[in-house]
Amino acid sequence: MLGILYFIFRIGNLVSLVKGKNEEESSSANAVNAYLFLLFMIVGLVAFFWYSFAHFDGYNLPVASEHGEVTDYLFWVTMAVSVVAFTLIFIVMFWFTFKYRYEKDRKAAFFADNHKLEIVWTVVPAVVLALLIFSGLRAWDDITDEASKDAVVVEVIGQQFLWTARYPGKDNLLGKHNYKMIDASNEFGLDLSEENTWDDFKSLELHLPKGKEIKLVIRAKDVLHSVFLPHFRVKMDAVPGMHTTFKFIVTKSTADMRAETGNPNFNYEMACAEICGRGHFSMRFPVFVHDSVEDYENWLKSQETWLKQNPDYLKRIPAEKREAAIVKSGIPADSKEAIQNAAVTVTLN
Amino acid sequence: MATIDIHPQTSTHHHDDHAHEHEHHGNFWTNYVFSEDHKVIAKQFLITGMAWALIGGVLSVLFRLQLGFPDADLSWLKPILGGWLTPEGKIDPEFYLALVTMHGTIMVFFVLTAGLSGTFSNFLIPLQIGARDMASGFMNMLSYWFFFLSSVIMFVSLFLSTGPASGGWVIYPPLSALPQAMQGSGLGMTLWLVAMAIFIASSLLGSINYISTVINMRTQGMSFTRLPLTIWAFFFTAIIGILSFPVLFAAALLLIFDRSFGTSFYLSDIYIGGEALPNQGGSPILFQHLFWFLGHPEVYIVLLPALGITSEIIATNSRKPIFGYKAMVGSMLFIAILSFVVWAHHMFVTGMNPFLGSIFTLLTLIIAVPSAVKIFNYVTTLWKGNIRFTSAMLFSIGLVSFFLTGGITGIFLGNSAVDIQLHDTYFVVAHFHLVMGSASFFGMVAGVYHWFPKMFGRMMDERLGYVHFWFTFLGVYLVFFPMHYIGIAGFPRRYYSWTNFETFSGFADLNMLVSVAAIFTLFAQFIFLFNFIYSIFRGKAAPANPWESNTLEWTTPRNPGHGNWPGEIPTVYRWPYDYSKPGAKEDFIPQHIPYSETPESNLPHENELIKLELNNGSINGENKTHH
Questions:
Q1: What is the pLDDT of residues B59-96, one digit of tens each?
Q2: Which residue from A minimizes the CA distance to B603?
Q3: Are residues A164 and A271 located together in one domain of the fold?
Q4: What are the two backbone dihedrals, phi and then psi, of residue B593, each rounded to the nearest 5 degrees?
Q5: Do residues B141 and B37 touch, judged by C-beta distance below 8 A?
Q6: Minimal Cβ distance to A111: which of B281, B384, B503
Q7: Do B533 and A2 touch (CB under 8 A)?
Q8: Distance from B347 to chain A by nearest Cα, in Å?
Q9: 8 Å CB contact of A9 and B94
Q10: Inter-chain residue contact A113 with B285, CB threshold 8 Å
Q11: How many other C-beta atoms are found inside a 10 Å radius of the C-beta of residue B185?
């Protein structure tokens, strides 16, 4: 590689020695660079505006949440302001490099400062930025505000390399969990001595209602992950050892979105946005948004509680509470087998 | 070429003791290897930095192959990558993360911190302030060799069978703390931490030297207000480094404790590999705070020297004073201060208290103001100039262009509400690669072209410089501009592949374009490498002041020896930006020319200063007050 370059370069050098390099040549090189900057400016801006308009649908992700519309609006306002500023400065700068290219007989202006000018271009960006900041901060305060009491609560748990969701069941309260209780079946680490866990259920797909506030409670089992719901403009890290939350209202059901995009196979997706290891790129979690709160509630009703699916764990529940757990988890009262099994284990203990 | 090579004091006989004292006595080892001469150390930093840049660039091309050509069979890389290729000829997903991690670490720390500051702070501070050498040549030498040792350790980690550190250059625990979580968090991570600890020691030794040299060793007349902007930039950079790197050291130390001694600073409630770990009560967020307390100032550690270099080059080649010298210094100072109070804008959606998010949004967008001022000042410096497009000037203009393009997207990311969607997407990748990565890289390259004649006494080839610039300039835009679109579409960073998601199924075309441009840009750097090596040995001999510049380094001999000036150190009488002064014969008046010699161009208040010059007695070389 370097050898070839060396060869070409030597030839070029010899040729220029023969021709005799003089000042004219270097001033023509100067002009070439000046014209190239001008060309770059024009071609660059044309390409930028052409692609941005022609491929708008390619990069603009449809938005499907209430706060997402606000942050998208802010995004595009910021975009408008910055594109104007960028384009102006870009043009001015490359125009200057072109217009003021070296000429032998010209002398540059001795222009060392101008306080008025400097104050203007300090104050103008400061004011524009202040406006952007304050509209941004207002949106941020709303987004990060406490979720309302009747919000739908769903817990999302990240682990290498998959997501699971836990729903609070009829009581709308997520039961306690403890990472030390995690085992092959009890992947949530449910602390079954606490009654709120009894009607919790697991889902391998995130089901959400349209038009009702949702509060995601987010945690991680092993390393950092990050809940990313691109269409809802939702992103929040999943952190081992703490709960993070994000509240939002979905405005378009999966069916709405299929109609809007004209893609009958459209599905919402959740991704991981924080590097978490080998399978980081594969942590896809399907998301389904029901058309109405009723639909969503019907789906909730159709789900079996975790305890019902894992009746063995009844034995972890103190005997005096076991009857209540059976009722709350929806284990059929006539399925004596499970209950007896549990009782036997306890006696043995 | 009309060059000025005036030494008001060279004819004097006294005070030449220094010249004797600093003549070359040493052997090969003391002159070129364990040298305490700032110029040699600068070259050592430069060459090590260039080697790292090449490695970092090659790593990025490897992962761009995966992203741009996900179906390609890369079996031909088997001789280099060996077991890191899957049987189907694909890059292993975990090795992909190792590539991303090492690319970031190498570029940020080894190239743009050590390679940039190490080279130009070392080279220019003594030469431009008029000093014989650094305050402590020995510490300076140690600084390089610590860096070298750190480099060796980091380099060795690339060849471990479990791979180098792979958790991203930010090495967030628990991923980086648990070998169960990924292979790279084993020995690779240990070596990463050891290498960085040594690197921090190197950086601190360097910074202490830069600061004490700038404060104490300026030549007579070189007041702070007459310092070239390069020196101001290096000075602020060193202060930022001293205040922030120890915090990274603390973060790394606590991580070492968590990894090896069972503490729980960053770990809590972890169930991994079928086992619940005993650690409780720690917080991964704590690490992020500590990391970014360095991590954000680090952005300016990387950027400020490049901006300083650019200020000098743009003024020289526009043949104009830099516009708003005081505003430039002020905005650098302001940036330096604010850089310490914006770190948590990297953490808006990490689970940090949202109230902090509001505060950091506010502070972050304030830092945009001095940055904007700097851009306006550069553009105004070009206005009504008489611009000479040297290679260095082209790269400096390129820097301003990148700084503008990449800086403006910071307004999106600094705004917490807007950042929710953009955080950890390719929009961020585009932003920081332009504003910090490419801009600083261009500053570094511009500096090499500009000061090469002083470093090696020869000129680099200008035509190759032009070709190098245009290929690289276009290449960089083609690599990073499309990433904005990919980022707006929500594509997350550090993804090995996007095919698992319908949402991220597009943009195969743009990703391919980016990869092709990246390969192209890497190859363009070989033009530079060739030019650099060729010119060291075969370049045209450099005139004393090839760019007709005002700063002091051009008053030294063509190949300055140890001690820089054979005789007296010149006294400084004016600021460094007297370009195209009305009335002056030439379009530049170097700093060591007294006002008494330029009555035709003096401004009224400068005529007043002539009396002071005479009172000093220094004008006739009777420099009795000095030394």
A1: 999 999 999 999 999 999 988 888 899 998 999 999 99
A2: A110
A3: yes
A4: -90, 120
A5: no
A6: B384
A7: yes
A8: 9
A9: no
A10: no
A11: 27
Provide, as residue numbers in chain A, all residues whose Cβ is less than 8 Å from the Cβ of B63: none
Q: Are residues A54 and A162 in the same domain?
A: no
Query: Buried b vs exposed e over B530-561: b needs ≥16 C-beta within 10 Å?
Result: bbbebbeeebeebbbbbbbbbbbbbbbeeebe
Q: Are residues A183 and A299 in the same domain?
A: yes
A233 located within any domain: yes
Q: Answer yes or no: are the C-beta atoms of B45 and B119 closer than 8 Å.
A: yes
Taking the CA of residue B621 and the nearest CA in chain A, the distance in Å comes to 30
Which residue in chain B is spatially nearest to A16 when comparing CA positions?
Answer: B463
- pTM, two decimals, is 0.92
For B231-269, how does the pLDDT look when each residue is reduced to its tens digit (9 = 90+)?
A: 999 999 999 999 999 999 999 999 999 999 999 999 999
> Do residue A221 and residue A282 come from a single domain?
yes
Task: Please judge whether B369 and A122 are an interchain contact, meaning their C-beta atoms are less than 8 angstroms apart.
Answer: yes
DSSP letters for A76-97? HHHHHHHHHHHHHHHHHHHHHH
Distance in Å, alpha carbon of A129 to nearest chain B alpha carbon:
7
Of B350, B386, B389, the CB nearest to A107: B386
Using DSSP's 3-state secondary structure scheme, residue A339 falls into helix
Same domain assignment for residues A276 and A189: yes
Question: Do A196 and A284 fall within a single domain?
Answer: yes
| A94 assigned to some structural domain | yes
Query: What is the CATH number for A264?
Result: 2.60.40.420
Report how far residue B417's alpha carbon sits from residue A138's, in angstroms, rounded to the nearest whole number.
9
For residue B256, how many other CB atoms are within 10 A of its CB?
A: 17
What value of ipTM does the predicted structure carry?
0.92
CA closest to B92 among chain A residues: A278
Do A228 and A98 share a domain, yes or no? Answer: no
Q: List domains and CATH numbers for chain B.
A: 37-538 (1.20.210.10)
In a domain, A195, yes or no: yes
Q: How many independent structural domains does chain A possess?
A: 2
Query: Across the interface, which of A102, A233, A275 has its CB nearest the CB of B494?
Result: A275
A337, part of any domain: no
Domain region containing A36: 15-102
pLDDT, tens digit, for every residue of A164-205? 999 998 888 999 999 999 998 999 999 999 999 999 999 999
**For the CA atoms of chain A, what is the radius of gyration?**
32
What whole-number distance in Å separates Cα of residue B172 and Cα of residue B255? Answer: 10
Q: Which of B94, B490, B587 sits opposite A107 (nearest CB)?
A: B587
pLDDT at A14 over 90: no
Choose the final residue of a domain: A43, A72, A102: A102
